[in-house]
Amino acid sequence: VTAMLLQAIANLANDFFDFKHGFDLPGRTGPLRVMQNGLVNPKSFAAVIFVFSVVAVLLGLILVWHGGWPILLTGAVSLAFAFLYSAGPWPLSCHALGEAASVFFFGLVATGGAFYLQTHSLNFTVLWLSLTPGLLIACIMMVNNYRDMEIDRQTGKKTLADFLGPRGALRLYVAAIIGAYGITVIAAVLLPSISWWALLALLSLPLGIKVIQGMYRKTGPALNQTLTQTALLTFCTSLLLSIGLML
User: What parts of the chain have a pLDDT lower than 70?
Assistant: First the structure.
């Protein structure tokens, strides 16, 4: 629940501060934004973010009681960057660091932190395999930034897609998906603590091919479907990998 709250806070803060910074122009083709469409007044929206943050801190303190200072540090940094991604004088989302932050927080920090909380230990195998969900979650952001490339340029928002250009962004998206599968294959083949059952994650490969085709064939609002499918790919691959690790 704490992890889900941190994710919700990051999304809400992104909605709030992108609107405040003027990044959400009328021509934006992404999913519905609350602030941009005037569905909630700014004060009420900020109050929701505050309440979510307080609840996340209170629940996080229970985890700190179990995990000690490493979990305290992990939680504090995660909550801070839930805001720093889109807020402050140097938001990560405006400096082509969104995808890197996704790999770090949704891969290394989330997986490594969860493992440490339950075992009070950490090892290379855990951190290596954490890159699979980390890279796939970064792909979700890649779709979003690739779709909004033109509008982001108009507002001065510098994303990784803008830095790489359309072809470079597409190639990185494909490389990240291939890399996510490759990490699992390497673990199953080379790491003695991982069995071949981990290769169950490859069962999501048809969906992986589908989202790659969608990135190359679709533009504008049609990419919202690819965005959803990339999220589904992340969920299915992570679930299959988890099942494989349990067998």
Answer: 23-30, 36-37
Question: Please, which residues have CB within 8 angstroms of residue 246's CB and are 6 or more apart in sequence?
Answer: none
Helix (H) or strand (E) holding 162, with range, is: helix 160-190
Contact status, residue 137 vs residue 106, Cβ threshold 8 Å: yes
**Neighbouring C-alpha atoms within 13 Å toward the C-beta of 99:** 23
* Tokens linked to 235: 């969920």
What angle do the packed helices 42-67 and 2-20 form, to 10 degrees? 150
Name, in order, each residue with C-beta under 8 angstroms of 223's C-beta and a sequence gap of 6 or more: 29, 143, 146, 147, 214, 215
Complete DSSP assignment for 56-115: HHHHHHHHHHHH-HHHHHHHHHHHHHHHHTTSSSS-GGGBT-HHHHHIIIIIIIHHHHHH
- Using CA atoms, how far apart are residues 63 and 160, in angstroms rounded to an integer? 34
Can you state the angle between helices 124-147 and 160-190, rounded to 10 degrees?
150
d(CA 200, CA 127): 19
Per-residue DSSP letter, 200:
G
Instruction: Give pLDDT tens digits for 96-148.
Output: 899 999 999 999 999 999 999 999 999 999 999 999 999 999 999 999 999 98
pTM of the model: 0.90
Decide: 24 and 35 in contact? Cβ < 8 Å: yes
CA distance 171 to 133: 19
CB count in 10 Å sphere of residue 129: 26
- Look up residue 178 and give its amino acid: I
